[in-house]
């Protein structure tokens, strides 16, 4: 969303500014629907972290946080579990259908990525670790998948 402040800054600045990545109306509706699937504590932490991110002039230029997944049906979870095992692709989860916090409704987990100015989606570990700091600051009950013990780090993943 374009704020009054940033449009004022843009009109005053003679230099070419990098565009802030912007979600379309449809994308914003999808984001709101996904966030609505999360338990209130997790949704609140995400909303606060997102607001802090977008309030930071450097971070918001790096990319806009987006929810790629929140609630996931047990069937969809089993499809993901098969990936890297009985189906091609990298392993993306260690949880079978019904075992993931994504499979609860309301969901106790959400996955984050970043929309870049060129329309690409990024799962940058650096950006995710910065976002994780904001999530944990918003609510100490939030666990980041990047902190999971063992070799499998699920950096896009946050849960309560
Ligand atoms: Zn996840």
Automatic annotation (TrEMBL):
CDD domains reported for this sequence: L-Ala-D-Glu_peptidase_like
Identification of the protein by name: M15 family metallopeptidase
Provenance organism: Hymenobacter monticola
Taxonomic lineage from the root: Bacteria, Pseudomonadati, Bacteroidota, Cytophagia, Cytophagales
